[in-house]
Amino acid sequence: MDLDLRKLRYFAALAEHLHFGRAAESLYIAQPVLSRQIRALEQELGCTLLERTTRSVQLTPSGAQLYEEARGLFTTIDSAVRRVREVDRGVERLVVGFASGLRVSTALRAFAESRPEVEVELFQLKWWERELPLRDGRADVGYLRRPFDGTGLRTVTVATEPKVACLPVAHRLAGSPAADRPLLEADLVGEPAIGAQVRRTASIEEKFELVASGHGIAVVPRGVAQVYSRPDLIYRQVMDAEPVEICVAVPENRRERRVREFAQLAAAVLREAWGEPERRDITRV
Questions:
Q1: CA atoms of 108 and 100, how far apart (whole Å)
Q2: If you average pLDDT over each of 228-232, 244-248, 280-284, which comes out highest?
Q3: Which domain holds residue 216?
Q4: Same domain, residue pair 137 and 18
Q5: E strands, 131-208, in order
Q6: Which of 9, 40, 76, 281 has an alpha carbon within 20 to 30 A of 267's alpha carbon?
């Protein structure tokens, strides 16, 4: 079955608004047209996407799954269309994604010297998305921390980074005599931890605000703590915690010269910036 993208976009608008009138208005079509298209989509898929009453519209589990899939699909399609149009205009553009607290500027400067004709754009990777922008085309190259799903990606580890515990200043582990000895993972057992389960879309700033207000502690890479340093928080290295790997990553299906050259250059430059020995042949990126 060939899925009609127009019907899928109509459905996505309805799933966003959960109101036929407002969705039709956003699409600049008549409401009866939208209703017919949604019914046709349900018939083609063979499942009910919406629960309709006289007062409300709600997504069924199948509808919620389709909406999630559709958003990723549209992002991928839009990114592909952008790249095609750039080729048609003779534009070479590179989108470099980077995680919070990681500095990619040394690699950008080196690349600008060797390929000044390439337009470089930066894209900050959200902590809850990790490698997803590499998969859907929003970023061409990623400079990010593990853990992430490396399936379909070519990666090179350029450095490791210790983990630190983010603590309120009044926490029992923040000051003397506790601070006079190394902090170990065993010291954190039983402490309420603020992690990805708090809110999927919570920012790092929100996470640290929750820590400062006494809702729990957070264990983060040292680079993140350095960027978000604040007087009401104490950061202590967890001495026996497994360090975080920092990687350069590109999708396996991206073979453009600019993507390949930047990834190779970035792996070498960033490894040198971290003072790390070479671990593998960077030409395999």
A1: 16
A2: 244-248
A3: 163-237
A4: no
A5: 141-145, 153-161, 163-168
A6: 76
Matching residue, tokens 């600019």: 258
What total of structural domains would you count in the chain?
3
Q: What angle do CA 229, 234, 182 make, to 5 degrees?
A: 125
pLDDT digit string, tens, across residues 12-45: 899 888 888 888 898 899 898 999 999 988 888 8
Is residue 182 located within the same domain as residue 137? no
- Residue 87 lies inside a defined structural domain of this protein: no
In a domain, 82, yes or no: no
CA pair distance 145, 274, nearest whole angstrom: 14
State the DSSP code for 175: S
Residue 62, in any domain of the structure: yes
- Residues with Cβ within 8 Å of 224's Cβ and at least 6 positions away in sequence, in order, are 100, 101, 204
Count the neighbouring beta carbons within 10 Å of the beta carbon of residue 182. 11
Tell me, what CATH number does 60's domain have?
A: 1.10.10.10
